[in-house]
Design goal:
By secondary structure, the chain is mainly α. It contains 16 helices and seven strands.
Length: 408
Amino acid sequence: MVGVVTLPVAVPAMGYEEHVWQAEPDGLHGRTRVAAASGPYRSTVTPPITDFTPSLPTDLAADAEDATAALARFDAYARSVLGAGSPTLGPMSSILLRTESTSSSQIENLTVSARQLALAEIDQSTSQNAKVVVANVRAMEAALELADRLDSDAILTMQRELLDAQPGWQRHAGRYREGLVWVGSSGITPRGASHIAPQAEQVAAAMDDLVAFIRRDDMPVLVQAAIAHAQFETIHPFADGNGRTGRALVQALLRSKSVLTSTTAPVSAGLLRDTEGYFRALGGYRDGNARPIIEEFSDASRFAASSGAQLVDDLAAQMEWSRERMAGVRRNAGAWKVLPHLVAHPVVNANLLIERLGMNGMGAQRALGQLVDAGVVEERTGRQRNRVYQHAGVIEVLDVYAQRLRRG
């Protein structure tokens, strides 16, 4: 059987600079290890891509267009299932965004259950991972809010949302890095790293060039998103949060180009299915071939569209089940106002209803009591004060989805 020949997509070649690294004692490594960590290394110099137009083989161009169309169909499907004016559409978009944020975080080995994430959203979680993932949600929200003006300030805002919640990293939030970063197992030397990013003084200009590339409207959107993402990860402009900020940027680009207008597709969930392939594709881009990263984004987008539609159906089914349980609750009761928001917030307390829905304290407690009486939510703390309620069905749907991703 003759193998299929896949033509590469050439990208501007990376440059390199020679430097000498002087390792500093960190209290964790002995003198011999520190001495061996010092020596010559090569850092990357990213080529400008403002005017770069990829030459796409016909099969790859068709594949990327098919994947883009799948995302657009998913967006329309979410609208049609829920209704453009439905009170559930906004909350459903929020939970899809949280799903995307959680998947993006899992790529960085930050795992958290749906319940812990929901608890963190109402400041009731003791999980540091959950708090970091909530920060990723905030970064994704900022990305979508800033989609109409994708510039350097917008990208800095996304990263600030991420790092503000990470203890010890706040001074790096919302600013480009001041030192060298690399991708590798050693914390004291770049020598032997799989990727050594550009020197810090090159970052601002490289990011300005990337922003100019992102603003172009003369190439297939998914191809542009894949190349922009790979270039961003190659620049590695921040001291931390590069991967999650880079994937938030993808969502902003898809929104700004009107591929996704009503909701968020879990593209990172697709990348999470094969993280080794995703990281290999980034390496391929740095070696001069953008085809692997475009293929990864196309595959991830199709998976996002398919699994996202199933997730919408499963969550919509939970809302329908809940409405049936509430058949005896009068239509003007506060519980009906709360119900659609249980998609985005499957764990709630009275404070959330007061802050998000404008209820007063008595109204919030009454609505929660109505939902408990109908069997829609259950109280989990057993306390008389600061009680927390959860919609077990929504949490189960989200956890099953996450488990399916981890199984690949």
